[in-house]
Amino acid sequence: MKVRIHCPPDRRNFHIQIDTENTAARPKKRLNKNMETTRIEIEQEFDTEKPIFLEGLAGIGHIGRNVVSYIAEHTESERVGAIYSHHFPPFTMVNEDKTVKTIRNEIYQLKRDGKQDVVLLEGNAQANTPEGHHEVAEKLMGLVDDIEASQIITVGGYGTGDVVEDPSVFGVTTSTEKQEKHSDAEIEFDHDVGQIVGVSGLLLGMGEERGYEGICVLGETPGFLLSDPKSTEEVLKAVEQLIEVDLDYSELDEKVEESQDILKKVQNLKKNSPSPKQENQGQSGGNDLGYIG
Length: 293
Description:
It is a single chain. The strands form 3 sheets. Strands 3-5-8-9-4-10-12-11 form an 8-stranded mixed beta sheet, with helices on both faces. It has a two-stranded antiparallel ribbon with strand order 1-2. The protein has a single domain, classed as Rossmann fold (3-Layer(aba) Sandwich), CATH 3.40.50. It is of the alpha/beta class. The model is unreliable at 27-31 and 275-291 (pLDDT under 50). The protein contains 6 helices and 12 strands. β6 and β7 (100-102) form a beta hairpin. α2 (130-146) packs across α4.
């Protein structure tokens, strides 16, 4: 019941209005506190046994995403689900046919006879905040536990901030013994990488804490290329050996040539342009991009 009192400015002829509507019966609008901010939707059951978990998401040079999506497209991988999160960037992808697609990371499985199965994660976005990165990584580690993965392989890029003509492939592992196992994969373990940013690093760290073997494979890249096909190709060759697949690189060749032409132009511009005055001399790390993702 509501009681309303109407009082004019002259305070005469005021009246009381009684509203007999039962307001207590009205449904209250409440936020769903149980709504998950990050969720994994599995559309079909996994048919894998002790698979390798392979992750590659959007990041510097898009190396991680390009590597894993290339493997998914050029093998008999089948899509089994996706991960969605409120921590992903607030936009929607527009497809070539001008339809839309929400931001997500796709999950695939590669079932093989005589070789180890693989569960792949690739996507066009990572979380916007540190809290989001940790939440997404925790969800993914739950998936790693559920599929009883045998090991974790993550893929990313290492930005140098300068032109890289012959990109190296760097590796970081959960143990030194793991490095010895991959000595034939043309992965360098003698490097200056000091941190791994994003899900690629968190999965490896969380995996090590839970007893999983793992390796993060990083492609050296300038950092100013939206996509780096040359580094992608070099990392693909290393991952190809790690998971034992045979890939056709013909689709990458033209993109590699285009990217190399761009790098040559950038290099010529740097040679012909006057060098800027050095600021904050004596401080180390000013020109080192050093970003990994």
